[in-house]
């Protein structure tokens, strides 16, 4: 699939979420998170929060199409960027917990796709004009992360217990991963915006390799994280369709909790 605007990105993501729910496919986990982020970005565009709403529509469309291209390549012949192959390759692994699936998607989409989409939206010196709008999305991501972390806690009881003992553990994992990655993505976007041809391709290759290495660390962490994930997995719902539905309604469920879950 190929989107022409942000509305088509939202529709494409909604279609993936629906199909994944019917099939019990864990690809719907990240797609549900990403759909809600995109809806929030579209709302911000309509409300005039960005310096250039039309530019952000183009940016989000390029960004969304990177995900669609990777998803289509995987379904077609298990192809696509290395980091997405790592993420999609674990969809049938019942030992990979919900938070891992979410972070694997975040890793591939932000550590590879985001810089590429930004550089294509504003090549050359124009990239610097994009910076404020690029960083503004961090606030949108923070709101969605808070909503999704609550949804994860409801369907992953042990992770919810870690929240109470350790202080919103899953939120810290997700939020740190997203914020740190987006900061690095901006520097990579500036780099790519000034490159062409083989130099640009070499940088993209390097970003893909690095994101693939990170994906393997996320999938198979060492130390005490591994047994903790095993316990988390044993407490999670194995009803994939129900989990997708729950995650996809995270932002709808959040208003009742506003005022109690602001970023820390």
Automatic annotation (TrEMBL):
InterPro entries with a match to the protein in the record: DUF5995
One Pfam assignment: DUF5995
Protein name: DUF5995 family protein
Organism: Streptomyces litchfieldiae
Source lineage: Bacteria, Bacillati, Actinomycetota, Actinomycetes, Kitasatosporales
């Amino acid at each position: 699939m190929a989107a022409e605007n942000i509305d088509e990105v939202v529709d494409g993501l909604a279609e993936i979420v629906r199909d994944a729910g019917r099939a019990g496919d864990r690809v719907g986990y990240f797609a549900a998170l990403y759909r809600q982020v995109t809806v929030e970005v579209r709302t911000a565009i309509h409300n005039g929060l960005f310096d250039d709403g039309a530019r952000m529509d183009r940016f989000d469309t390029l960004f969304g199409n990177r995900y669609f291209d990777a998803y289509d390549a995987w379904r077609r012949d298990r192809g696509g960027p290395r980091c997405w192959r790592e993420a999609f390759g674990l969809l049938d692994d019942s030992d990979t917990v919900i938070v891992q699936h979410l972070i694997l998607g975040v890793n591939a989409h932000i550590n590879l796709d985001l810089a590429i989409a930004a550089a294509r939206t504003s090549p050359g010196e124009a990239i610097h004009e994009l910076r404020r709008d690029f960083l503004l999305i961090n606030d949108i991501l923070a709101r969605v992360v808070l909503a999704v972390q609550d949804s994860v806690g409801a369907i992953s009881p042990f992770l919810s217990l870690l929240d109470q003992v350790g202080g919103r553990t899953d939120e810290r994992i997700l939020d740190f991963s997203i914020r740190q990655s987006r900061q690095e993505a901006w520097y990579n976007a500036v780099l790519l915006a000034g490159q062409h041809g083989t130099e640009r391709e070499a940088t993209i290759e390097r970003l893909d390799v690095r994101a693939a290495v990170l994906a393997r660390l996320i999938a198979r962490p060492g130390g005490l994280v591994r047994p903790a994930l095993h316990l988390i997995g044993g407490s999670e719902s194995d009803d994939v369709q129900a989990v997708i539905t729950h995650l996809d309604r995270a932002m709808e469920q959040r208003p009742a909790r506003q005022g109690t879950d602001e970023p820390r």
